[in-house]
Amino acid sequence: MYQKNCEICHRASYSSSEVGKWICPICGNDLTNQPFFDAMTFERIHIKTVPLHRKLKKYQK
Ligand SMILES: [Zn+2]
């Protein structure tokens, strides 16, 4: 579970996916480029966003 903090309304939102767009459910702000935090430990997670087509290639091996 991931958490991102909105810089506009200062609310946290949660998601289980690190891919795709992340829009603040409160104010609609685009949080896609905000850093990920672990929802349990609140530690910052460094995720390199991998383009979807590269991920699919990996799975085909
Ligand atoms: Zn917001």
UniProtKB/TrEMBL annotation:
It comes from Anoxybacillus andreesenii. GO terms for cellular component: ribosome. Keywords: Ribonucleoprotein, Ribosomal protein. This is Ribosomal protein L37AE/L43A.
